[in-house]
Amino acid sequence: MKAPQFSNRPPRWAQRLLAWLHPSETLEEVEGDLDELYTYWHRRAGKTEATMRYVLNVVSVLPPFVRRRQRKEAHQTPSNFHPAMLRSYFKIAFRHLIKNRVYSFINIGGLALGMACCLLISLYVYDELSYDRFNTHYEHIYRLVEKQQQPGGIYDVAATPGPLAATLTKDFPDVQQVTRVGRWSGLLSQGRRSVESNQMLVVDPGFFRMFSYRLLVGNPLTVFRAPDEVIFSEAMAERFFGANWRQQNVLGQSFKLNNEKMLMLVGVAENPPVQSHIEFDVLLPFKWLERNDEWSMKWNSNSYHTYVQLKPDPSGEPADPAAFADKVRHQLKRYDVGNETPLLLQPLSEIYLYSKFAFETDHGRRSDIAYIRIFVTVGLIVLLIAVINFINLATARASQRAREVGVRKSVGAQRGSLVTQFLGEALLMTVLAVAVSLALAQLLLPLFNDLANKNLEIPYPLPVFWLTLAGFTAFVSLLTGLYPAFFLSSFRPIRVLKVGVAGHFSNVKAGRGFRQTLVIGQFVLSIALAISTIVIYRQLSYMQNTKLGFDQSQLLYVRLKGDLRGKSQPLKREVEQLPGVEQVSTATSNLVNMNNSSKIEWEGQVPKDEFLITNMNVDADFVKTVGMSLAAGRNFSARITSDTLSTLGAYLINETAAKRMGWTPVSAVGKRVKFWGTDGTIVGVVKDFHFRPLHVGIEPFIFRFRPKEFYFTLLVKTKPGLVARTLTDITQVYKKIDPDHPISYGFVDQDLDAQYRSEQRIGRIILCFAILTILVSCLGLFGLTAFTAEQRTKEIGVRKVLGASVASIVALLSKDFLKLVLIALLIASPLAWYAMNYWLESFVYRIEMQWWIFALAAVLALGIALLTVSYQSVKAALMNPVKSLRSE
Amino acid sequence: MRRTYLGEFEEIVLLMVAILDGDAYGVTVSQEIEQHTGRQVTFGTVHNTLIRLEEKGFVTSLLGGSTAERGGRRKRLFKVTALGSRALQDIQQLRNELWQLLPPNTLKLGGS
């Protein structure tokens, strides 16, 4: 700078202001131009004026007045999607994948596991939600259900009286059609061939018009006009006529039902689809039922399902069910005077998942929406954990990419292109993970089908499936890629390149906090699932081991059919003679989930004080056979004439019943009660026993001794170790006495277990997912420890040189992670406690949630975490410090 | 046909760039405008207008011609593009046509 020009210079502060605030794109030319102008003004008007004008003009080119020039000509940034750039991105991504094989495996494997789970769960949920959708009139069909006021509460009942259906079409123009569905059972025979139907339904002719069950043979418009007709399902036709029934002329053939009524086969229906809430193998016309069972035409015959199909509104949309529901609400009162029970509409779409009806009035295939909720929650948890892993590892590995980001930025990469690059990498990883997860899901499908009791397939040909998968991929890659993308692209090139990676990262505390939060989140979910699993299994084993008040082991039951029900004594006597049999009794139930309850009147009853009492008919050997014990009084006896009279009743009640009627067990003996119109005396009180699942408490129970009435079940107590032989013996005896019917038998303990099948399934599912979540969380933890150990290689080297022991270094590395797991435990415990408390509340008989459950989960989680962490930390601690310190 | 709108000041600046014929940059353009129209314009106005004209495609620019009096900094030299000269000609032609349509006495009466 030359001295004479110095005085001609514009003020420094204005120049600085300009350099500081003016856009960098045009700074050089504007500075030059203004300098030139200053010289010009200085020459023409002197220093003061020149300075003034300079300052004014500087202000005119400062923001917000100045227009920003778009940079384009000097160095054009190539598009992020330029082939060369894409190639570079791919190459770098693959190099990283291969260079860090372990991380790539953990990352992709963990994500794939999570996604495979999610995939299977979505398949399941989709399947469950699409029940009954095969019906063309799906949206127009409703079932009428009742809300009954009974002593003891309000009950939802899925059954309606037989005559209701006809009044609906007559009274309501909005009703397109109605059909009733009732249950029946029986043996079909033709000549010497006979087959027992498992699911016999009685339906109206409208059944085939309303629902989309197809007839393979027969005319759906004319069937069931006459009463003596029958329709088989495909499966039934195969059982009866063999696999080639299509070649035979089956229509018009006659069959005997229960060896008396003749029926003509008018059609063979396709097997009801798996996704149908109605199941049948034989259909009978309702007309037949009306002819043979007059009760079905009475208003108190509350045992049939009534379905209505509403007319669509003029635009073809489903009609508003609310309007119809209002009108139909008091339909029962209209015809059955005094019947205040309201009718409600249940849409077809809700029957499969939302049917919880009392008194076993609902039948057919059912599931529970609770399953779906549990599945979805658990699936999302697993996915969340996998995604957290991915984010965690990706941010942790970011240090390796810091140099690359620095170099890319200095050669002109902008933030946008870096974000694209890392999002693209996330996409690549996700696509790989999706591919692996598809393979994994295919592999795990049989196992899952077994677990969920389903027959699912991956719907490869469905475009929707691929679209969903693509959407899902995009979503997950965004989720997993966003944080790394923005985190990495925010590096300042100079710092990263000059100070070095370590220097840069020592400042990134935020990243570490973020990772720690995610690890805590993961372990909260895993530990909560682990605690839930323990609680569910404890409850299950509690239910299996609870003393029920009778001895269900080695207790066999044989169903009595047809004539045998009235004449069971010969069979009983013969079975008693068998060597492996200890005791035999005839009864009306097998003690599993008994529901048959009615009102009772008793001595000293206060008016309006009513309750329902569950009942069954037994014989004098019953108490001994099932191993119940008496609290007071005596057992029934065939030798006491007052016990066996048909006009007078002799009763045994349970302790709860005695208490309900205001007696002690001792005072109850000899009291008079009236049940089902028969006056009688209480001869004894049995100790309380569980006759319903442990979800509900013990209620009043009454045993009746009616030796001249029907018995439905033969209860056989076998001697230990002789069950198999006894079973064949009983079968032979049964065949001799009742050659018409095939024998049906079962074990009481197995049937009791089966009541908790849904709980067992939930337990198994949660167990699987708990293992999975812990596995995936540990995968992530493993990756993170490896990363920290690598980061601190030098530090460990120095510590070792200075005399640190291996143990202290392992402790140093493990401490941080164990702290996180401990925090997670503190958060997870109340969460799991709350959720499990809610679940346990559905059982009247339940376990207490003891502290050791949480302690066990804690020990488990800490142990697994410690194992995971220690592999890496021990490896790091054992490393030779010379190696780690040699190179700098 | 829709022309890109050219404001009054934009038109003057564009004309100046054309007049200066290859020697147009921030300093010369603002000096010429001051001399020929007598208007005091701030440098920022000229600077912004030139950028805007370039965005509209009427002028192009390149950096060059650093001199000692500007501290060795380069200047941005502007040139009218084909589109720019077309726009100027269009304006000229439109004006001419409109002048032709003017009744002979109107201007004298109104403008005297």
From TrEMBL, chain B:
- Domain of life of the organism encoding this protein: Bacteria
Q: Which interval of the chain is the signal sequence?
A: none
Q: List each copy of the Transcription regulator PadR N-terminal domain by range.
A: 19-89
- The name this protein goes by in its record: PadR family transcriptional regulator
**What lineage does UniProt assign to this protein's organism?**
Bacteria, Pseudomonadati, Bacteroidota, Cytophagia, Cytophagales
